[in-house]
Amino acid sequence: MSKELTKATSILPSVFDDYFKPWKDLFDFNGGRTITATVPAVNITEEKDQFKLTVAAPGMDKDDFRIDIDNDVLTISAETEEEEETPTRQEYNYSSFSRSFRLPAIVVKDKVEAKYKDGILKLYLPKTEEARKANGTKHVVIQ
């Protein structure tokens, strides 16, 4: 992108900027700066036999990731080459990140599996046999 076009886009207001201007002060929590996510969003779900950790990391290759378990801490990190171009507006940048999670004692650490497809990294964290058999709900009698 030429420098002239970059300057023009930073000077000329967007149609959306004008449209949302009356509400901008109500919803603008970042002082007018663009928010850039530098770590991907993560969802964690618990199933009967396992926990599933899902990481949204588009535009990466499976070889960009490194997954380590040190004692009870799971660390997911990634590093990739940054692109030469500078976006006019940037809301995510996952060129490198690191996320760590403390694992519960019921996770079988040497059986953790990971798959990356279509921008989603999924980790499967199986539970111990005892945890699988245990009834998830315990009724407590009030005395």
Automatic annotation (TrEMBL):
Domain of life: Bacteria
Coiled-coil segments on the chain, per record: none
Signal peptide stretch: none
Record-level GO BP terms: response to heat
UniProt cross-references to SUPFAM superfamilies, sorted A to Z: HSP20-like chaperones
Domain SHSP residues, every copy: 33-143
Listed Pfam families: HSP20 (PF00011)
Keywords noted in UniProt: Stress response
Keyword Metal-binding: no
Family stated for the protein in its record: Belongs to the small heat shock protein (HSP20) family.
PANTHER family assigned: 26.5 KDA HEAT SHOCK PROTEIN, MITOCHONDRIAL, HEAT SHOCK PROTEIN 21, CHLOROPLASTIC
Designated name of the protein: Hsp20/alpha crystallin family protein
Organism: Chitinophaga silvisoli
